[in-house]
Amino acid sequence: MKRDVYLEDKPLEEALAEYMSHLDQVGALQPGESEVIPVEDAAGRVTAAPVYARSSSPHYHAAAMDGVAVRAADTFGASDATPKRLAVGERAVVVDTGDPLPPECDAVIMIEDVHFLDDITFEITAGAVPWQHMRVIGEDVVATEMIVPANHLLRPVDLGGILAGGVTEIAVHPRPRVALLPTGTELVQPGAELKPGDIIEYNTRVLGAMVSQWGGSPRRREITADDYGALKARLQEAVSESDVVLINAGSSAGREDFTASLIGELGRVLTHGVAIKPGKPVVLGEVAGKPVVGVPGYPVSAVLAAELFVKPIIYRKLGTVPPVPEKAEVIVSRKIVSPMGTEEFVRVKLGQVGDKIIATPISRGAGVIMSMVRADGILRVPRLSEGYNAGQTVPVELMRSLEEVRETTVIIGSHDITLDVLANHLRKKHPYATLSSAHVGSLGGLSALKRGEAHCAGTHLLDEETGDYNVSYIKRLLADRPVVVVNLVYREQGLIVAPGNPHGIRGVEDLATPGLGYINRQRGAGTRILFDFKLKQQGISPDDIRGYEREEYTHMAVAAAVASGSADAGMGIRAAALALGLDFVPVVEERYDLCIPVEYYDTPYIQRLLEVMAEPAFREEVRALGGYDLRDCGKIMYDSRG
Amino acid sequence: MKRDVYLEDKPLEEALAEYMSHLDQVGALQPGESEVIPVEDAAGRVTAAPVYARSSSPHYHAAAMDGVAVRAADTFGASDATPKRLAVGERAVVVDTGDPLPPECDAVIMIEDVHFLDDITFEITAGAVPWQHMRVIGEDVVATEMIVPANHLLRPVDLGGILAGGVTEIAVHPRPRVALLPTGTELVQPGAELKPGDIIEYNTRVLGAMVSQWGGSPRRREITADDYGALKARLQEAVSESDVVLINAGSSAGREDFTASLIGELGRVLTHGVAIKPGKPVVLGEVAGKPVVGVPGYPVSAVLAAELFVKPIIYRKLGTVPPVPEKAEVIVSRKIVSPMGTEEFVRVKLGQVGDKIIATPISRGAGVIMSMVRADGILRVPRLSEGYNAGQTVPVELMRSLEEVRETTVIIGSHDITLDVLANHLRKKHPYATLSSAHVGSLGGLSALKRGEAHCAGTHLLDEETGDYNVSYIKRLLADRPVVVVNLVYREQGLIVAPGNPHGIRGVEDLATPGLGYINRQRGAGTRILFDFKLKQQGISPDDIRGYEREEYTHMAVAAAVASGSADAGMGIRAAALALGLDFVPVVEERYDLCIPVEYYDTPYIQRLLEVMAEPAFREEVRALGGYDLRDCGKIMYDSRG
């Protein structure tokens, strides 16, 4: 069972420089033959040649004001004391803005400065200076002058300048044709009925949208199975019909990863494996003078590899350069450990809390496309760094504008589905506002508040002594921090079980039954604390619960584990069970509050949320989820200021 | 002759707030009925509803690595000292990344950690932890979770998240349909044969491209003549078929400006006249619940009015907000006087010189579309300000990115056509580099160097005593500033005259002939100094030259004046005469140099220019212009360091 297990580990800068330089040498970065298009369709295109004016604008001496065109010499001497009378005729003509001046005239008097005595005769009280209130020939554009140079990205105003210069068609660089080849026996088209092992082929849709955004013209081909011969034929066809070819995936070194050997057979592999994470198994190749890139299969790897290696090719072929991404200096909220020798691209959520922008890393799996959907920015950990410490200031490349980041309410803490509903209603009411929630459990949320990383925390921490929620924890953990606690919802917690409850589970007491598998929440989660409390009440040891050590971070993930059959029960909220069509064994009603440091309470970050929480539309949608009670929603449950 | 001469002068904020609030009240800002489109076509669109996952991703437990799927319990106890042997079978299956795990398995061992003894038997030296190297169901997307909220602008990665969640079609806000109504008897379509008084109708092309850029769907109508009845019918039709209507122009208060009264008859005019410059004569109206904006006719006014009043409408109807323009703090290079009571939008060129970004205002005429084409940014002078002093720090909204501005070589001084050729070749060789030239004459250029506003100055100043060029002026004006002077070209200066030289002009000596009209260059221009020198040589007084006081800022503008017949002669370079098909009477060959402060000489700003000046392609193009000699092009003529 021979496998070519190891990939190269070439530093990013080296791989990129070497690849671009090779492509340059073989002419693969040259723009294609220019195409001539109507100017009015040219916004967003790039000029292939300088554009010179064919005619001047104005192309005649024009009145720049509504008024009377005169010969300036006829007006000399007019003043308040000695008004001058003139008569409309060959050398005094009423004109509107834009009218051509009669050949005898060389100035315009504004209509406001003209006093008509009758239909013909008018009086002026000041002389006109030659050429006043006129637009002379070529004032805007002079025939033959260069309006825009070559390799200029055309903006709407440029179209105006070019059309004003009498030009109606221009030469632009063609959009590079990019062939997208999805490969893999496991791939199915979106919308297909899914069998285990099927993977929805969405990567080339994402890559295609990226290519379009950069100015290229993507063309997605049919899915090719993992068959060397079929792939070879497909690649040869794509190379002959396109300017750039992306093969997705088969770019690693597995049993059915043919991309590298295929490119090697038909052309040349410059690099197979770059020291980046995600995105390592990328193939940088060239076939018949065309760039051919083997893009990795994991979606985050695919997006990153395309950003790093395909985007510069497209822009070079368009004779221009990529826009520079907006950057910001941010504070890392927690330690980020990254392997030495690899440049890592960490997706982060961002929010302005106080006067700092806080970056919180999100899932680092290359397979988690939602980490890109949820990311506000990308933090690069350089190849020769082992990461960052919490509190360190680092640069991030923004995926949302700084203004949007600044309008984001940051909530860190326990997860509840109503937060999604809240986020959605917030955005509907305030299009510029975002609710960004990170799920680290109730205790994690209170710690985040303590460290100044969030505007509020979602928390449902049961005090075993008093049976009350949250307040005793807050008093202890945030002793020196004045806060307001506002209720969001009451919700049912219980055991999520398979449909029909096949094991007849009645409560926590039944979970120690041999053969039953449990799925737990992570340490610090309110649900975990509740579960531990219930175990203690029942005198059950965690050791008796099979799967106690298996941790998930959200209610939905627990429900998904039960739905898949990998666990028989897990504690969570009713809404999660309902969402996946599972059964639910109620255990307790608990209080879920928002804990808000007073300094944020009166800011729009919080007041906007409270407004939305008061809206009937929000409340109805939450009630429809099931398992929620909103009797205290928006009510202040505790104010540490007394 | 009754005219409604005066417009309102409403402050911008007031006009905008009042208009948006009225439109909001009549429901004109609501998005249209949502449309359902395939996810793969949805990049750049805005969600009309939150998107929830239909299925989980992965939808089965998947191997996250190439390797062997095992039951973790079977591996316990394996170590280097006590390797464990397993056999491929029901509970140990070779898997590739993405393969489904067999039901009996709950972990994957990486292929690198497996030692096959034969085709079936393998050995491991470490136990597997349950769920290691697996992607469990829902790791990326959990069925029913919200993937993106409503009013979310979809990026390529979002399409991936949505497709991964099993969703193939989504509801998005429709693109607002924007009708563009060009009106005016003087308008002709681009490409038409031009008669005096004809104006090329390009405004609606520019507006259409802007609307598309914002996410709207523009539809340009036929040109309507200035006829109240015809306009009324056209407007009614447009209102019934569109979401927003722009009428261009007739928005002022002239004899044939019907826009305001028409909107008033069919609906309501909220504002007619806003205290902005350019853009004052704008009409903000509403007809049948649709926004109808009378956009001014001057192109810069049209662009600004659309930016200020139409853009926010389009974005509101898309459920989102406009991107915030990039801003920068810059230094104003010269005094800007702006009328109190009016908010002025001054177009500026920008360049980084030393550690400051310098803003140089360009033409302020509302009719000069090239002022927008050439602008790098817009400087707002607030309504209650009278302007800025030279050297003051002010904010500008950028029209080019700060990075591009930073890569711009700023040349201020005398105008020569070869600078356009140089700019074009520079951009071809360095797609990120720009040559920005401001034309203020040779002396103006040296002053700009003195004030630290440019990287170099173009200069051709004749020393009347020595007959030499530039150096004596530089020694005097830049005494304490070490500079290098590099020759660009020698060029012929002479008199530009009508084709066939109808007045038989042989030289400067003939210009005092009665009846001849001259067109001059501005004070401080090298050509003006040369002309004055020649007059003195001939013993002619400026008073004897009719038109001596008429000043233009470029050779091409002088040539245009001669071409139009408004002047019989003007001094300038041969290339300008050739470009407009005029005749040329040579007077002198002069030297045109670049004066470069030594601190910029070795920077890319200058070295890139010198590189391009050495290229045969650049030189051939300059020679083809006619009247140029490149014998010293690129040669150092003077180095003040000795």
TrEMBL record, chains A, B:
Residues 179-316 form the MoaB/Mog domain. Pathway: Cofactor biosynthesis; molybdopterin biosynthesis. Its cofactor is Mg(2+). GO terms for molecular function: metal ion binding; molybdopterin molybdotransferase activity. Its EC number is 2.10.1.1. Keywords: Magnesium, Metal-binding, Molybdenum, Molybdenum cofactor biosynthesis, Transferase. May be involved in the biosynthesis of molybdopterin. This is Molybdopterin molybdenumtransferase. It comes from Desulfoscipio geothermicus DSM 3669.
